[in-house]
Amino acid sequence: MNPEATETDETIACARCGIPADGAPPTWTCSFENGRRRYFCDDCARANIRSIEGRLDSAWW
Q1: In this structure, are residues 28 and 14 in contact, taking their beta carbons and an 8 Å threshold?
Q2: How far is CA 61 from CA 5, 54, 55, in A?
Q3: Cα separations (Å) of 35 from 15, 23, 31, 43, 46?
Q4: Which residues are 34's β-sheet partners?
Q5: d(Cα 61, Cα 50) in Å, to the nearest integer?
Q6: Over the chain, what HEC string results?
Q7: How far is C-alpha 54 from the chain's CA centre?
Q8: pTM of the complete model
Q9: What does the pLDDT read at residue 32?
Q10: Which residues pair with 20 in a beta bridge?
Q11: ∠ CA(27), CA(11), CA(49), 5° rounding?
Q12: What is the mean predicted confidence (pLDDT) over 17-36?
C-alpha cells in the first residue's frame, strides 16, 4: 500500500438509498459521522437539506 496515495479503490454508494457513484461524486454531500465518512447522492441530500444544515446525524432524518 502506498502511503502517499490519496485515492482509494473503495466503491462509493449513497448511505441513504444505496445508489452507487460513478467514480468520485463531486456533487454529492459528504458527512463525517461516528468516525466514518458517509456520502449522500444529490436526491437524498436535497430531500434532507434542512437536517444536514442543522448538523443532525443521518440517523435522525
Answers
A1: yes
A2: 34, 11, 11
A3: 14, 23, 10, 24, 24
A4: none
A5: 10
A6: CCCCCCCCCCCCEECCCCCECCCCCCCCEEEEECCEEEEECHHHHHHCHHHHHCCCCHHHC
A7: 16
A8: 0.69
A9: 86
A10: 13
A11: 35
A12: 89
Q: What are the residues whose beta carbons fall under 8 Å from the beta carbon of 61, sequence distance 6 or more?
A: 48, 51, 52
Rg (CA), the chain: 13
CA nearest neighbour of 48 among 36, 56, 21, 32? 56
Distance from C-alpha of 58 to C-alpha of 45, rounded to nearest angstrom? 10
Amino acid, res. 59: A
What the block records as the C-alpha cell of 46 is 436535497
* 42: phi then psi, degrees, rounded to nearest 5: -55, -45
Over residues 3-23, mean pLDDT: 77
